[in-house]
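EI: anyone free to look at a 139-residue chain?
SC: sure, send it
EI:
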Amino acid sequence: MARIGTAEGEGEGEGYPAFTPGDTCPDNNLLTPEGLRLIDFEVACYQSVFLTAAYCRMPFSSCWCVFALPPGTAAEIEQAYRDEVVGVYPALADDDVWQAGMRQAIAVWTVDATVRVLPRSAQDAPLHRTRRPVPTRRQ
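SC: here you go
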């Protein structure tokens, strides 16, 4: 995955790396009385915090359950995540730094989705073969 952003003291393009499950799609999480628990780590890796944060803004562009979130939900998720990563990377408290990284991450996810889905969009099939409701490739 692309390197996005530059942490203070790091070379250009080194980014703000953090461990991520790699696929925070809603069906890879479990709601428990203690809160949300990530349960799928098959593509876990270190990547830019912006790639993880931007995933809910899209929302979930690489997932079969790509749907619009209720108003304000993506912003709440992003802010909760940002609050955590600012403890590791204080520079991310700066709105200019955060927004620049988010713009780059959204561009990466957009290219990723386009490359993956566009070649298969001629046939407007559902993104999941059994679950309903589910968006189609063109959606």
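EI: The radius of gyration is 16 Å.
SC: 👍
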